Amino acid sequence: MTGQKTILRALAGETQDVPPIWMMRQAGRYLPEYRATRAEAGDFLSLCYNSDLATEVTLQPIRRYGFDAAILFADILLVPQALGADLWFVTGEGPRLSTITDMAGVEALKPTDDIHETLNPIYQTVRNLAGALPAETTLIGFAGAPWTVATYMIAGRGTPDQGPAHALKDQHREVFEALMTRITAATIEYLSVQIDAGAECVKLFDSWAGSLKGEDFDRYALDPAREIITALKARHPGIPVIAFPREGGEKYVGFAKATGADCIALDNSVSPEWAAKHVQVDGCVQGNLASSHMVTGGDALVRETRAIVDAFSGGPHIFNLGHGITPDADPDNVQLMIDTVRGG
Ligand code: CP3
Q1: Is the complex ipTM more than 0.90?
Q2: CATH architecture of 72-265
Q3: In this predicted structure, what is the pLDDT of residue 92?
Q4: Which of 64, 193, 224, 282 has the fewest CB atoms within 10 Å distance of its CB?
Q5: Exposure letters 205-238 (e unless 16+ CB within 10 A, then b)
Q6: Dihedrals φ, ψ of 271, to 5°?
Q7: Which residues does the annotation say bind substrate (predicted)?
Q8: Do 58 and 118 touch, CB atoms closer than 8 A?
Q9: Cα of 160 vs its chain's centroid, Å
């Protein structure tokens, strides 16, 4: 497999002496060049829909650090917007959406085929990136997983416990499932066009998967992931998929086999030693340094980074954080993490 990009080699199951590395939210507010481009765009959503500027911010961390992968600059909440939800961001607080509480709300969503009208600038960003990235850099597309996207569409905002979504699921299951079906169909189409436009791998972000317990986890995190991955691989044979059922805990075990995912992204609530034994046995894993080290740096960063590289050295591994880097991170700590991974 020599000659192939390092990320694609890891996703194909190859164990490498030095694991390839990228970072969730690598294009973000901790970088001065990101803040400058975002100011030029006006606001976050304008930046997402401006293909030239979205291309620019995607490339910034590649230029600065030479990460092995670039992730498309966009947001998981663009799919609800493309389905007809109102979406806006309140500075310092986060996203706000119009809410869905009943079947009329689900039925008022736009047909799946109409999402591309809104999402066309995102596909253009993917095409720009496919032409602009260095030959060794893998382009990752992404979408939110249906449960996580549904939690925002139901509550109209981020919630600490996903309470409104759990309530709809438990009290009006038919409404909840109709919404999940609509999001799943839109996600398949969205990712499929990203792949046609040049994404070489796609990642499904299920940030709130950990709040689904027992059978609910299987029905609303695992089953939708399998449905999406199966559809994508039928249309795009060989396309690698990274699944991130965040805070999945013991549910990480067997998730790759059950869904067809090529790689499981791990948050930092699971120890690398445990994950090597129980998750990496089935294939590639990604993770899982705590993002707090990007704020605090120093010996602890170096020690933890080495421990993660060592624990996963016996199998395919992509180094990453356990969640997105935060705005208060120090760009020098990112360099220290990369140097530690690559230099030992
Ligand atoms: O990783 C990357 O660099 C790619 C781009 C990306 C963004 N959001 C850009 C972004 C990706 C992959 C996402 C995913 C996303 N978005 C998730 C899943 C992953 C996760 O973090 O759990 C979720 C839940 C969202 C929804 C979302 N977008 C929230 C809750 C917020 C507000 C919180 C915050 O950090 O401000 C956003 C905004 C957002 N998405 C920013 C970025 C760079 C910050 C916007 C800004 O510049 O002000």
Answers
A1: yes
A2: Alpha-Beta Barrel (3.20)
A3: 87
A4: 64
A5: bbbbbbbbeeeebeebbbbbbbbbbebbeeebee
A6: -75, 145
A7: 25-29, 75, 152, 207, 323
A8: no
A9: 19
- CA 131 to ligand 1 centroid distance, Å: 24
CA of 75 to the centre of ligand 1 (A): 6
Ligand 1 neighbourhood includes 201 CB (under 6 angstroms): no
pLDDT tens figures, 32-61? 999 999 999 999 999 999 999 999 999 999
The tokens for 290 are: 């705590």
Residue type, 331: P
Is 75 near ligand 1, meaning CB less than 6 Å away?
yes
Query: Domain segments of the chain: what residues?
Result: 1-21+267-344, 27-66, 72-265
Tell me the C-alpha distance between 194 and 201, whole Å: 9
Q: Which of 38, 206, 267, 282 is catalytic?
A: 38
How far lies 168's CA from each of 39, 53, 68, 103, 171, in Å?
A: 38, 38, 41, 11, 5
In this prediction, residue 259 carries a pLDDT of: 98
Average pLDDT across the chain, whole number: 97
pLDDT tens for 129-150 read 999 999 999 999 999 999 999 9
Helix ranges restricted to H, the chain: 6-11, 32-41, 44-49, 51-65, 78-82, 103-107, 115-132, 146-155, 163-171, 173-197, 214-217, 223-235, 255-259, 272-278, 293-296, 298-311, 331-343
Q: For residues 263 and 256, is the Cβ–Cβ distance under 8 A?
A: yes
Looking at the DSSP bridge assignments, the partners of residue 285 are 264, 317
| Bridge partners (DSSP) listed for residue 264 | 243, 285
Tell me which of 34, 75, 268 to substitute to probe ligand 1's pocket, judged by most ligand atoms within 8 Å of the beta carbon.
75
